[in-house]
Amino acid sequence: MAELTPDQLELLQGLADAVRRVPKGQPKEFLASSDQEGSEVLALAGHYRHHGVSPSDLEELADQGLVRITERRRYGDLLFSVTNRGMQVAGLGSPAALVERRVRFVQDRLPEPYRLAQDLMDQAASRLSDAHDEHDYSEIGHKCREAMQEFAEQLYQQVVPASQQRTLPKDKTVDRTRAVLETWKPEAGDTTVALLDALLVYWGAVSDLGHKVEHRSQKAGRPLTLQDAERAVLYTYLVMAELAGLDPSLDAPGS
Length: 255
Fold this sequence. Notes:
Blueprint: H1 6-20, E1 29-35, E2 38-43, E3 49-53, H2 55-63, E4 67-72, E5 78-82, H3 84-90, H4 95-108, H5 115-127, H6 134-159, H7 173-184, H8 190-214, H9 226-245
Helix pairs in contact: 1-2, 1-3, 4-9, 5-6, 6-7, 6-8, 6-9, 7-8, 8-9
């Protein structure tokens, strides 16, 4: 089997994840509708939607036996399903795939209001490859903190009812995140409520980590390292993805 490109693998993993979430007895087929900007893929059941899919990527998945095209319609529209082999190759159960899907969602699939947070995280991640000293690590930490501020602000605006919103300083991300989680709690079970409480602690810890890296805080005798900057980038991606996964309107992995 030829190696899939990152875009092809992301597409396959998104399709396989949608299949797993289709209610029992519902159709597990997808419709790819073509236009000038590529294809929009919709699940016939469930809530999966992916804009801007390259038709050639779908054809490559079909050529490799990972999806099965069941009907070719006029104007290039396709009906297709994911094969058993496609589900296996998607590797949704592997820890590496779970992490990659969450990071890729934040990188590529958050809607327009979150675009600045995406861009800031892209800048932080791109700096890792040529970061060599504490000045570089500080810039990475700064970008992570800015991204968390933008993400928390947008999530707050989208989730918390306008009548309950209040003016908060930009850096009060924990307060915004707490308000978002409190908005979700009435609809959550006891176990989910406990996870929401833990997620608030997680968010605060990641925020503190970004602050430490930005301001070059260090224990006696241990300067900041590339690993500190890498940890700030990874955990910022993951905590954003976990929050996005709790918002059904974002159709994130795990939602």
